[in-house]
Amino acid sequence: MIKKILPHKVLHSLRRLRLRERLTAHLSALQRPALRRRVTLHSGAPLSRILSRKLLWGALTVIILIVAGLSFLPLVSPPPVVVTPTVTIPPPSRERIVTGVVQSGQTLSTILAPYLSSQEIHNLKVTTLTAGHSWKLTLYDDQFQSFVHDINDTYQLLITRPLDGQATAARVEIPYTYAEHAVGGTINDSLFAAMTSIGEEDSLAIILADIFASDIDFIRDIRKGDTFRVIVERRLRDGEPKGYGRILAAEFSNDGRTYHAFRFQDGKKKPAFYDSAGKSLRKALLRAPLPFSRVSSGFTMRRFHPIAKTWRAHPAIDYAAPTGTPIMAVGDATISQIGKTSGNGNYIKLQHAGGLATMYLHMSRFAKGMQKGKRVKQGEVIGYVGSTGLATGPHLCYRMTRNGVPVNPAKIPTTPGEPISRGELESFRALQGPLLAKLATIPTEMTSIAAPPPGTGGE
Questions:
Q1: Contact indicator for 275, 281 with CB cutoff of 8 Å
Q2: Do the strands 356-366 and 345-351 form a parallel or antiparallel pair, or are they unpaired?
Q3: Do 389 and 345 contact (CB within 8 A), yes or no?
Q4: Do 339 and 321 meet the contact criterion of CB atoms below 8 Å apart?
Q5: Coil, strand or helix: which one is 158?
Q6: Which helix (H) or strand (E) holds 447?
Q7: What is the per-residue DSSP string for 220-265?
Q8: Tens-place pLDDT, residues 391-404
Q9: Phi/psi of residue 326, each to 5°?
């Protein structure tokens, strides 16, 4: 009967409460009133006990109804499970940088031996490093990754090795950045002193002198009060100044005369410097074989020799300069003689076009690769100042002959340079105008520091 009255779910709940049997007995008793009356009225049970039973069955009925009502309610879903995201902390960088400076006599093997095998280092075919220049070694998990060494101001040695390969070496350009830079000053003693007094490197003075070397003798022609203006590319590395790049335009006022130079590429020719009229500044001969020095003895046919103690002709110009100062060929030529004598010391004779020849005496040493028959270019270093032969101090004795007859190098007229081609002249004018306007705005007022005179020397 209980199954007919109550749903299955309620019965299931009652089983769990162990009330089914009690309820069945209670309902059976209700269907037999006589028996119920006997139990309740004639059993002799106390009235309090009968009332307690009624209260118990009333409470049981309420519990059954509550359980029945709950069985029809929808089940409550459990609260959603919140998944905490996993935060992955990357491992610390495993790259390590080692830096240093190449010491005198140090080789690549002594630096890379802990990281590369001797065979790998040998296969790189790198024989020497530049003493005093920096190097940087990059490791990853203590394994060799790269090695960088500055060979000079322009190139660096780069050695790399992939994780599954062999190390290789290459000579690459140093990655510089460039910024336009304006420079101006007034000469009080020398171009070197004027340049350094305004905070510029003396290398800029050499570059500037080289540009105007065919028109100005920076040894004999410089006057106090001469001025210069330069637009140059300042070379930067990691934001720090590291020398200079290209000079874009320059102006030099010497003894009341002003010279201009503009960098320009005429068609497919190499970039060169041209004056305001579009003529090349490169003449057949330089005015002097040294960029900076001092004339210790001029051209004369009668001079008292300080060592021989006799009067002799001196068909040459002596330039006093420190030992090791580079000596340049004044023009394109072929080496016709090279050697050493008791009087001339180490010397070189160059044969130029038109029967012109030049000689360079008392060198401390020759430049690398100099030999008889070699072609040299104007401005190429052929040797270095010294005091070999009959010389009282370091200097260069510079001589010139035409068809075997001595001539005064200072009296040789300069030939006009080759002009820009007509097809490129308009492009040159378009470039020249803005640069000329920029040069005019560069101030030249400053206080120069007088440079000490170079050491004396001469025959």
A1: yes
A2: antiparallel
A3: yes
A4: no
A5: strand
A6: none
A7: TT--TT-EEEEEEEEEEETTEEEEEEEEEEEEEEETTEEEEEEEE-
A8: 888 999 999 999 99
A9: -65, 140
Closest CA to 316 of 434, 424, 399: 399
- Taking the CB of residue 329, how many other CB atoms lie within 10 A of it? 24
Would you state the structure tokens that stand for residue 303, as one six-digit string?
């001079």
Predicted confidence at residue 264, as pLDDT, reads 97
> How confident is the model at residue 223, as a pLDDT?
92
Burial of 398 (0-12, 13-18, 19+ CB in 10 A): buried
d(CA 261, CA 248): 8
Low-confidence ranges of the chain (pLDDT < 50): 34-44, 298-299, 301-305, 308-309, 311, 447-458
Residue 456 is predicted with a pLDDT of 39
Q: Which residues contact 307 (CB under 8 A, 6 or more apart)?
A: 390, 392, 459
| Nearest-10 crossing angle of helices 47-71, 8-17 | 130
**Which domains does the chain show, CATH number per domain?**
2-71 (no CATH), 95-173 (3.10.450.350), 178-283+418-440 (3.10.450.350), 294-411 (2.70.70.10)
3-state SS class at 85? coil
| DSSP letters spanning 37-64 | HHHHHSS---HHHHHHHHHHHHHHHHHH
Q: CA gyration radius for the chain?
A: 51
> For a pLDDT cut of 90, what percent of the chain falls above it?
49
Q: What is the distance between the alpha carbons of residues 335 and 283, in angstroms, rounded to a whole number?
A: 20
Quote the CA–CA distance of 261 and 209 in Å, as a whole number: 11
Q: How far apart are CA 248 and CA 169, in angstroms?
A: 34
Please give the pLDDT value at position 128: 81
* CA–CA gap between residue 108 and residue 121 (Å, rounded): 8
Q: What is the pLDDT of residue 39?
A: 47
User: How many residues in total does the chain contain?
Assistant: 459
- Joined together, the tokens standing for residue 126 give 């790198």
Tokens of 165: 């390969």
Give the chain's largest Cα–Cα span: 175
